[in-house]
Amino acid sequence: MQQPIMLLPNFSSISACWAWLALQELYRLGVEHVCVAPGSRSAPLVLQLPRVPQLQVHVHPDERGLGFFALGLAKACEKPVAIITTSGTAVANLLPAVVEAAMTHTPLILLTADRPPELLACGANQAIQQSGIFGSYLQYEAQLPVPTTEVSPAFVLSTIDVLVAKASADGHRGPVHLNWSFREPLYSNDSAVSTFSAEVVLQPLTRWLTSTQPFTHYAQFSVTTSFSEVSKGVCLEADTGLLVEQLKSTQHGLFVLGAGLSRGDAAAIMKLAEQLQWPVLADVQAIGLVGDHPLLLPHHSLWLSHPEIKHCLGQTTVVVQFGTHLVAKALLSYLQHFAGDYWLVASSFERYDPSHQVALRVQAIPEVWCKQFNQHLSKKANTASSWLKNLQQVNEQLRCTVLQQLPADNDPMCALAIPTVLKSYLPASGYLFAGNSMAIRLLDAIVGNRPVWQLFANRGASGIDGLLASAAGVAQGSGKPVTLFLGDLSLLHDLNSLLLLKQLSSPLVVIVLNDDGGGIFHHFPLTEQTRQDYFTAAHGVCFQSAASMFSLDYCNPKRVVNFKHDYQAALNRNTSTLIEINVANAQAYHQLQSLNKSVEVCCDQWFCQGEREVTAK
User: Fold this and answer.
1) CA distance 430 to 511
2) How far separated are the first and last CA of the chain, in Å rounded?
3) What is the C-alpha separation between 166 and 76, in angstroms, rounded?
4) Fold of 242-384
5) Alpha carbons 394 and 382: distance in angstroms, whole number
6) Residue 255 pLDDT greater than 90, yes or no
7) Are strands 230-231 and 234-235 parallel, antiparallel or unpaired?
8) What pTM does this model have?
9) Do residues 506 and 479 touch, judged by C-beta distance below 8 A?
């Protein structure tokens, strides 16, 4: 046998050997982070982690929080992250994070320890049916038997290889699951007397042991064209010219930016928009990638439902959406009733068509797709139409109206002040993580266009669970300051994830809007009594004690100027900070309603003035 290029550890059991092979192969495949929840059945895997020191290990006692932490970590690193848990309900607690990972195409590798077959379905402790527990939310699932010398160790390596390949496949990224049966002893040590011989067992792996490469390499080759789907029986590869001509001849076209885009995607989309002179509506998950651009029309969630705006946009004949999920109901409603050609371009192959209006679905990397179109367009950009100029002019008036409604420094602290301050003070080098429900809607309404920044959110399933853990994962993976803006119920739902903040190498600023329950439910047609009895979930909790319990800096500003000071100070600390904003339960709802009313009045005045000018002529 040729000498291995690495020092082969001394293994006291076949379980330890297989575990080491799996972890070593994960490292060779580019996995950098392993997230671990303490447990006994997974001990054979965990005890081999020190023997693969290149892997960064993160430990958290709650599997649900751990899953979301790994989710945020994978999003920030843009690489697969492994999770190790023990058996039983520990595995079930990963389900919410797995669902979100599946819907946002985030690669997670779940390594779950299980009881051996003889301890299943017989009343043994901590034994449940783990195979198939994640249902259709996986890209791939495999089962490893109890480690044995009767099975070639190459089986372990090739299984890890296919897991990582399935998790990372272009257009189909997502969570994968390896369920692994272990039989006692689980804690066998190297000094124990054993008849097991690693050299004999690993004899079939000479090629692997004398290399630094994975056992099996899965190669992906990009097709020469970015058009990869057939729609309505027409081959897009052969019909590229017709699509280009349709774009060139469209006077009233519109670009929509959704979730899941990169900075490269956004830059290529805006370059194409400049060539065509089309306006752009960007979801809050994408608007930070664009920055301040004349073709970007911000605050669309406030004005898109106005009758005159809808009439103006009714002239649109082609809408091209890039990316996936959208937040604003006004934009979703516009697309639902859009009667022209609706194209959707996304790198993954899901539907992303809740209105069932998409006529052309292209699976492609948006950056590649746009660059290909730009190659076919003339170098000279189209001139802006009067239609576009009108939209830009009214949008500028609306932007000024929004700015006039925002709170001033000496005003009492309020819900609208949070996105107002974030708009001005969020560092360009940092990240913003948006909570769901009211938090992301406030950001959507207020932030608008500003210098480039990046937003993360769990908008696949849009749950309020695991938001703090996910933001902590983003902070750990990015190594940059992260600001998390979420609601009080979301923080209560994930409170024990405050423990993760102690492990971070860069600060996480947690801004919690505490309106004593679910203020979002004021948006729905409920009687006040019904809302209070069944939906608000008022709790009367102050988070200062939680900050103290987890050794976090804490602030509770009462005026906008105090919040600005506290937020800037938090960004400059090396530790994490919890900033609590206390408001009345219905305040955010009423402030958004007031803002919508001001925008409506501005629209009325603008279009009435336009009609008067036309009449005068």
Assistant:
1) 15
2) 94
3) 20
4) Rossmann fold (3.40.50)
5) 21
6) yes
7) antiparallel
8) 0.92
9) yes
Output the six-digit token pair for 32.
């950098």
Nearest CA to 593 out of 523, 528, 502 is that of 523
What is the per-residue burial (b if ≥16 Cβ within 10 Å, else e) of 80-114? bbbbbbbbbebbbbbbbbbbbbbbbbbbbbbbbbb
Two structure tokens written together for 617: 């002529």
Please tell me the predicted confidence (pLDDT) of residue 191: 53
3-state secondary structure 28-50: HCCCCEEEECCCCCCHHHHCCHH
Give the containing element (helix H, strand E) for 556. none
Q: Which residue has the tokens 């290529």?
A: 268
Q: Which residues contact 203 (CB under 8 A, 6 or more apart)?
A: 1
Beta bridge partners of 85: 112
Residue 10 is predicted with a pLDDT of: 84
Q: Which pLDDT belongs to residue 8? A: 79
Locus of tokens 């299980």: 114
**What is the Cα–Cα distance from 59 to 82, expressed in whole angstroms?**
12
**Residue 244 pLDDT greater than 60, yes or no:** yes
User: Residue 516 gets which letter from DSSP?
Assistant: S
User: DSSP secondary-structure letter at 238?
Assistant: T
List Cβ neighbours of 529 (8 Å cut-off, separation of 6 or more): none
CATH number of 14-209: 3.40.50.970
The predicted structure's pLDDT at residue 228: 40
* Residue whose C-alpha is closest to residue 362's, from 243, 190, 198: 243
80, 77, 27: which is closest to 54 by C-alpha?
Answer: 27
Q: Which CATH superfamily is domain 406-585 in?
A: Thiamin diphosphate (ThDP)-binding fold, Pyr/PP domains (3.40.50.970)
Give the torsion sign (CA, 402, 405, 406, 408): positive
**pLDDT higher than 90, residue 599:** yes
pLDDT of amino acid 211: 92
- 324: exposed, middle or buried (Cβ count in 10 Å: 0-12, 13-18, 19+): buried
**pLDDT tier, 331 (very low <50, low <70, confident <90, very high otherwise):** very high
pLDDT value at residue 226: 41
* Residue 526 pLDDT grade (very low, low, confident, very high; cuts 50, 70, 90): very high
* Three-state SS at 412: strand
The vertex-355 CA angle with 353 and 360, nearest 5°, equals 50
Percent of the chain with pLDDT over 90: 77
Q: How far is CA 26 from CA 154, 160, 427, 482, 529, in A?
A: 14, 7, 35, 28, 55
Q: Considering only CA atoms, which of 383, 376, 390 is closest in space to residue 607?
A: 390
Mean pLDDT of 494-498: 97
In degrees and rounded to multiples of 5, residue 578 shows phi and psi of: -110, 120
Sheet of 318-322: strand order equals 280-282, 253-257, 318-322, 341-346, 360-363
Same topology between domain 14-209 and domain 242-384: yes
Burial class (CB in 10 A: 0-12, 13-18, 19+), 36: buried
Per-residue pLDDT at 308 exceeds 70: yes
The span from the CA of 41 to the CA of 65, in Å, is 20
Domain ranges of the chain: 14-209, 242-384, 406-585
What pLDDT digit, counting tens, does each position of 89-106 carry?
A: 999 999 999 999 999 999
Task: Using pLDDT thresholds of 50, 70 and 90, give the confidence band for residue 221.
Answer: low
Q: Using the structure block, give the residue that is written with the tokens 């009233």.
A: 252
Q: Give 153's Cβ-side CA count (13 Å radius).
A: 26
Strand partners for 322: 257, 345
